[in-house]
Amino acid sequence: MHIENYPSKLLESAISEFAGLPGIGRKTALRLVLHLLKHDLADVEKFSSAIIALKREIKYCSSCHNISDSKMCNICSDDKRDHSIICVVENIRDVMSIENTHQYSGIYHVLGGIISPMDGIGPGDLNISSLEEKVARGNVKEIILALSTTMEGDTTNFYIYRKLHKHPVIISTIARGVSIGDELEYADEVTLGRSIVNRTLFETSINSGKK
User: Fold this and answer.
1) 145-196, pLDDT tens digit by residue?
2) Are 43 and 114 found together in one domain?
């Protein structure tokens, strides 16, 4: 394995930190660090301060678990949204992807992941119990399961369905306009928007999968 020789331990340390980010290799990390070195100290301090403030001050919505600047996010606190419809998503990126379609007017529930035994993630590691509590209150008329169309996503969908189907609530899933194996954040806005609008009953999707 080729080992890079850096002229500075400080440079090497900064590169290692950037290379620890998802999708960032050491060559890209080097390019980013050298880019920062070209900027004034004030600009670099502004950059680092924004990251530190994000980590220290960011909050998670007490209702849907989305990130927020306050106790409740701007979606859950919006009276114009339909609070009787809840779209269940894996993570915060999925909320952003669906919002960008401008085809959905309900609220969300962020699970914080999906069931994945291979990664040691079980139902108890996700925000599923709080979703069931919402449904049990009787104010929800529809749950839209909008998880990635992967084996793990389908497993999580089915687990949630089993937990909620005893309640008088419609449980639907996004239409298969999003290809099998795709994650929502990589779907284009038109396709994702149509998948939300043309959603189907989850029970129907189960039965069609058995044929």
Assistant:
1) 999 888 999 999 999 999 999 999 999 998 765 543 355 655 566 677 878 8
2) no
Specify if 94 maps to a domain.
Answer: yes
Query: What domain range is 27 assigned to?
Result: 9-57
According to DSSP, the residues that pair with 45 across neighbouring strands are none
Q: If 0-12 CB within 10 Å is exposed, 13-18 middle and 19+ buried, where does residue 107 land?
A: buried
87 lies in a domain?
yes
Q: Is 103 part of a structural domain of the chain?
A: yes
| Count: domains in the chain | 2
> Using one digit for the tens of pLDDT, what is the confidence trace for 97-154?
999 989 999 999 999 999 999 999 999 999 999 999 999 999 999 999 999 888 999 9
Sign of CA dihedral 193, 195, 104, 76: negative
